[in-house]
């Protein structure tokens, strides 16, 4: 099932792994494997990607990084198939993503002559990109499809859903806020009126979807395979400039 009605569906360039993710989720439907188990699997896949980066086996590094992206979609698909949505899974997934992103960028930095400050700036830019994309996407989902586990503003601890404990939700939400809070606040400060604006057209959402984690990991993988690891950090610093371009377009044409 799509997260959006047909008329608001757009080509999500960061979601290329969804077809394979659906196959994986369907194959696990009648097993005891949970969405959390799949999240743990994508953590392992991401760490294997990091290991092969250090070993200079960039093809294998790219394989496991992209496989991590596929599994990142599969855990949510499995939750929908089994009808077991949870805030525990939602926040655990996001926490794992940001930690793996940091490890991947630092791993690439250690193999280059780039200053650590630029590596941290690239990581910051990657997170801001993803936050802007999620911000606009969740606004659409909340407006047209009544999504329950993703909220436009993650500012209060949600009430635990069936099958999870409030304690686990409280703990994971607290960690989530510490890791993502600054990025959420920056994007909200830059475009606080987005929830009240006109729906963004499909072509613009497709452009912004290049800020999604899946597309970011695809770019990293491609540059690794091409042995252009020195370009990865500068690329994401420069690409982050489009954040302001997209916000300006929304504020001028879709307020």
Automatic annotation (TrEMBL):
Q: Which Pfam families match?
A: CDP-OH_P_transf
A GO molecular function annotation here is: phosphotransferase activity, for other substituted phosphate groups
A GO-annotated cellular component: membrane
Q: Which GO terms describe its biological process?
A: phospholipid biosynthetic process
- Give the protein family: Belongs to the CDP-alcohol phosphatidyltransferase class-I family.
What's the protein called, per UniProt? CDP-alcohol phosphatidyltransferase
| Keywords attached to this entry | Membrane, Transferase, Transmembrane, Transmembrane helix
Residue spans crossing the bilayer: 36-54, 91-110, 116-136, 203-225, 231-249
């Amino acid at each position: 099932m799509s997260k959006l009605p047909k008329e608001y569906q757009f080509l999500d360039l960061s979601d290329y792994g969804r077809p394979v993710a659906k196959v994986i989720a369907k194959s696990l439907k009648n097993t005891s494997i949970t969405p959390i188990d799949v999240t743990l699997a994508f953590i392992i896949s991401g760490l294997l990607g990091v290991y092969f980066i250090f070993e200079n086996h960039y093809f294998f590094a790219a394989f496991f990084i992209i496989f991590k992206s596929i599994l990142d979609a599969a855990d949510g698909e499995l939750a929908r198939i089994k009808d077991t949505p949870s805030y525990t899974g939602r926040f655990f997934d996001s926490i794992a993503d940001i930690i793996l992103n940091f490890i991947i960028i630092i791993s690439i930095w250690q193999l280059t002559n780039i200053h650590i400050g630029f590596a941290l700036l690239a990581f910051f830019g990657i997170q801001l990109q993803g936050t802007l994309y999620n911000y606009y996407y969740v606004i659409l989902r909340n407006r047209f499809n009544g999504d329950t586990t993703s909220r436009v503003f993650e500012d209060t601890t949600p009430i635990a859903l069936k099958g999870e404990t409030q304690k686990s939700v409280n703990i994971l939400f607290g960690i989530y806020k510490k890791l993502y809070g600054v990025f959420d606040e920056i994007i909200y400060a830059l475009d606080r009126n987005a929830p009240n604006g006109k729906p963004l057209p499909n072509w613009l959402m497709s452009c912004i979807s290049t800020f999604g984690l899946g597309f970011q990991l695809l770019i990293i993988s491609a540059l690794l395979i091409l042995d252009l690891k020195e370009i990865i950090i500068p690329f994401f610093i420069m690409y982050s400039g489009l954040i302001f371009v997209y916000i300006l377009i929304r504020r001028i044409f879709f307020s």
